[in-house]
Amino acid sequence: MTGAASHIPASHEPGSVKSFTCPQCGGSIAIRALGLSITAICEHCGSTVDVANENLRVIAAAKQRVRDIPLPLGSRGTLFGNEWEVIGYMERGDSSGSYAWREYLLFNPWQGFRFLVESDGHWTFVEVLRRSISTSFQTIFFNRQSFRLFATTNAQVIYVMGEFYWRVKAGDRSYLADYVAPPATLSLERTRDEINWSYGQYVASAEVQQAFKITDGWPRPHGIAPSQPNKYAASLGRNAKLFAAILALLTFGQCLVAGSSRNQTILNETIPYAASQPSRTQIFGPFTLPGGKENVSLEVRAPVSNNWFEVEADLVNTQTQDQYSLTDTVEYYSGYDSDGYWSEGGQSTDTVISSVPGGTYQLSLTPSAGIGAANYYQVILKRDVTVWSNFWLAFLCIAAFPLYLLIARSSFEKARWEESDTSASPAYGDDRPASYDVRNMKLQEDGPVADNSPVYGSYQENNPPGELKRQREALDKFRKNIGATGDDHDANSWYEDMNK
Amino acid sequence: MMHRAATAYYWLILAMFGLAWHQGYAVSSIFSTQQHGPRTSGTSSHYHK
């Protein structure tokens, strides 16, 4: 995504589609951004032709066959409110040749040039910035966002097709550094001659496909893109208020439960236990359990130590013979070991029986115990006690979804940053100095970057002096020639105008 | 879509919580040794009708 052009072809009026004859194969080369394009690649033979002057010099003869690409040259689509035409295609890869991505040059006479970058089926809409950004840190603060260094690459152009506003050919090399703040990216690109910064925004694959109305051969996204928005984070944000509101409702409900519970003691008996008569059943009642379907709790206390005490209890409705049976076991053990004092269990246990209808009941108790466990035990029967297990289960069920989103968000970010070749941790706010300084970057090609290559200071003009003015003048001339006036940004008719 | 599903899920949980309260149901009861049914043991003379 380099951007410095230096010459405007003068032989044809900008604003119209013009065709040239390829000096290599004689085929027709259509120039859509006439007056702005410097280089065109013959769609027939693949030769790179300098269209900045009338001589149409061949920069690079064809080495590869012309390819079919998902977004054909000349196709149009509306993205971010503007209609764009694909005028150039470039395939680039890292120096190892193991990874490649595709860049489409877009043109709109009112907006100028943009790029659509496709990598692993993920798309980024990129605009070259008109200023440089000084950095020697792994984090850049730009446009009220904090961008983290994601990857650095020595890239080279593998394949080009269409027209470009700078001189480009297969084999061109550059150094790239990508910083991400999903869904945005900041990319640094350094060649022998210049440094460019560009700002990209992630665009959903389906959105690009729909915009350009492409049906066949569309690359399916796979993996996680560096600038791909974390859908789980967005969902977590949207659900946070709902989660808090539901949790407040649940807490309010539990307060109601606690406030309205009767906690009425129906039976409180201390019963002697004779070891000589174990398993002797005793009957208590009849007594009345008030209300409708409410819970009943049975608490058993026994002064056991390193022993156990068990009670089999039957709560029987004397009218319906409906029976609730349970076994409560009290166990308490303690002692000393190499770690010191330990204990487990307790000297009481409490069991809640659900949904016991009101009525007249009797309680049958059959105790048993270890030798010398206890000589008495206490039984407390209560009606309509406050139940906390329901609250905690509901809390867990409600928290499960945000918890899932938290874990998924973390896993998403982990997967994203596993693709990063920097040592940066995914934690935010890390401003450690990077292990390199972009001002001292070296290209992996034949020799170091020239000492006199331009390096611009903080927030200075990104392109060489005069280049922006040249591009603005060229765009003005282009618009004038297609009959567009003023700030007419509704560019839907410019294609038709161009083809008149 | 996910937000709507989550909303419906949350309301379902709250409804179940309210229903359990209304029916006097305690989740903790499933973790204890309990049985419920017509009386099958003991002698009927133990119980007054």
Structure, described:
The complex is a heterodimer of chains A (500) and B (49). Chain A is α+β, with helices and mostly antiparallel strands. Chain A has helices at 205-212, 231-260, 389-418, 467-481, 494-498, and strands spanning 18-21, 28-31, 39-41, 48-50, 57-60, 76-79, 82-94, 100-108, 112-119, 122-128, 139-142, 145-164, 173-181, 184-190, 195-203, 264-272, 282-289, 294-301, 307-317, 322-337, 340-345, 348-356, 359-369, 376-383. In chain A, strand 8 and strand 9 (112-119) form a beta hairpin. The longest helix of chain A is centred in the middle third of the chain and has 30 residues, at 231-260. Chain B has one helix at 2-22; one strand at 34-38. The radius of gyration of chain B is 19 Å and the shape is elongated. The chains are: A alpha+beta (500), B mainly alpha (49). Chains A and B meet through helix 2, strand 20, strand 22 and helix 3 of A and helix 1 and strand 1 of B.
Annotation keywords:
heterodimer, A: 500 residues, eight-stranded antiparallel β-barrel, five-stranded antiparallel sheet, disordered N terminus, disordered C terminus, B: 49 residues, mainly alpha
